[in-house]
# Entry
Amino acid sequence: MSWNKLYALRSYLRSSLWIVPFFALVLQQILFRAALVLEEWTTWVPRWPLGTEGTVAAMQAIISLALSFIVFTFGSLLVAIQIASGQLTPRIIATTLLRDNVIRFTVGLFIFTLLFAIGVISRVNTSAPSFIVWFSGILGVASLAAFLYFIDYSARLLRPVSIIHRVAEQGFEVLNLVYPAPLSKDEGGSLPHHPLGEPARIVAHSSSSAIVLAVDVKSLVAQAKRADGIIELGARIGDFVSQRQPLFRLHGGASTVADHELRRTVAFGRERTIEQDPTFAFRVIVDIATKALSKAINDPTTAVLAIDQLHRLLRSVGRRQLGNDYIRDAEGRLRVVFPTPNWEDFVQLTCREIRIYGTENLQIARRLRAMIENLDAVLPETRRPALRLELDLLDRMIERVYLLPEDAALARIADTQGLGGSAQG
# Structure
C-alpha cells in the first residue's frame, strides 16, 4: 500500500467511532468461546448463587441496561455534535469528539457486555459455567460505573474551555513534529545558496480537487537524493489544490523521478486535519473565538478563553525554528523545497480576525493587548516587529471604535482576564 493511502487509512481509523465497538464484538466472540473451552480450568470460581430463573432475570437486566446505555450514548453524542458545531465550530467534530478514546472505549464496553450477557442467557439451560456468569455480572456492574463516569465526562468535555484546551494540546503535538528545533540566531540560514530557476519539469495534480493533508518529506528527500536533483512542492499543508494545478516542480536530476512515485507521497482529503498542519489548531481556536464574538452568540468570555490558548501556542511558536522550507540531505545539499508557515503567518492568524470582530468589546481589546505585550517581552527580538505591528493596529482600531475617551483609555489597559482589573497583564 502506498504511503498516501496508508496515511488516509490511519487517519480514518483514528477518527472513526465504530472501530473500537467492532473489535469489542470480535473480542467477545473469542473470549466467550475460550471460556467455554477452558471450563474445566475455572472450577475454582465460586458457585453462582442464583438459580436458573434468577440468572435469566439478571442477564435480561444487564442486556436492558447495556442497550439503554448504547442508545443514550449515541443520542447524547449526536446532540453534543449539534450543539458544539453550532456554538463553537464544526471543525471540532473530527478533531475532538470523534477521536475521543473515552467515548469509543465506553461504547465498546457496552457492546461487549451486551453480547456477553446474550451469550450467557442462551446457555443457562445447558448449565453455563459459573465463570462466564460471574464475569457477565461483573461486566454489568462495570458498564453501570462506566455510564455514570461517561455522563460526568461528557459534561466536562463539552465545556468550551475543555474543547479549546484539547485543540491546543493537539496543536503542541503538531508543532513538536513540524518545528522540533529551537529558534536559532539566524533563521534565514535555511535559505538556498542559489535561486532554483525554471523547473526542468512540472508534475500537475491529476486527481479531483482536494486539500493537502500530509506529505512524506523523508521519501521526497530520498527520491531527490537518488536522482541528484531538487523537488519543489507547489502547495503547503492545508492548501486547496485543483485538478491540473502544479503540484511538484522538479529541478536538475529530479526530473527523472516518475510521476506516480511523487504523487504517492502526498495525502489529500476533503477537509483539513491537524496531524501535519501547524496552523490548523490556530484556525480552529480562532474560529471558536470569532463565533463567540458574533452578534448572535455574544459570548466574549469564551473568546477570552480562546485567546488564552492562542497565547500559549504563539509563545511556543515564537521560540521555534520556523525556516523549514528548504530541506537538505545528510551531506547538506538542498533536496526538497517544502513551504511552511512563517512567524508572520502565525501572528496574523492569531490576531487579525479576533481584533476585527472583537475590539469593540473591552474584554477582547484588553486580553489581546496583554497577549501581545507579554509575547513582545518574552520572545527574541526577531519576533517583535510583527507583534508591534499588531499592537499598533489594535491602538488604531480602538481609536475608531470607542467614541468616549474614558472607554478608549480602559480598552488600552492590558488585562489577562479581559476585564478583571486594572493591573497590567
